[in-house]
Amino acid sequence: MGLAEKRLAESIKVEKIPAFEAKLKDKAGYDIKVDVDWNTFTAFNQYPLERLDIVFDDLESFVKKICADDMGKEALKEKLSTIHLTNTENNDEVAMELKDNTLYLTHQLVQASFSSQTDSQIADYVEKLL
User: Fold this and answer.
1) Neighbours of 104 (CB within 10 A)
2) What is the crossing angle of helices 119-129 and 70-79, to 10°?
3) Which of 42, 51, 92, 110 yields a CA-CA distance of 20 to 30 A from 6?
């Protein structure tokens, strides 16, 4: 990781994640913490970090879909308090799992191709578990 990646990661930590968590709180009605496994993002060039904006947009949309009414907000609050993001260079490792009130999402943001769960895929998966 070079200086550019370090600066971008710090900017995301200090500016983007707090703003993103505020958006999630606005949609869900409660705090949802976003936890990023930084080592899996900064081990590469800037692309995985830059692509976090796309992931954040999908996550915000997923929360909005689930929390469209009070029933959804209450159900999500009982099952989700943290979203944990991991990056991988292996497309076969792309996955999502909801356990212990944490939604674990593994994305493949490293290569020229991009593999991530869409807002609808995440919403469908989580909704079945609520």
Assistant:
1) 17
2) 80
3) 92
In 1-124 the beta strands, taken as DSSP E runs, fall at 33-36, 82-87, 95-99, 102-107
Q: Is the pTM of this model over 0.70?
A: yes
Query: What is d(CA 22, CA 31) in angstroms, rounded to the nearest whole number?
Result: 8
Place of tokens 């703003």: 19
54 Cβ contact list (under 8 Å, min separation 6): 114, 116
Contacts of 62 (CB under 8 A, 6+ apart): 119, 120, 122, 123, 126
Identity at 22, one-letter amino acid code? A
Pairing of strands 102-107, 95-99: antiparallel
Task: Give the separation between CA 32 and CA 22, rounded to whole angstroms.
Answer: 9
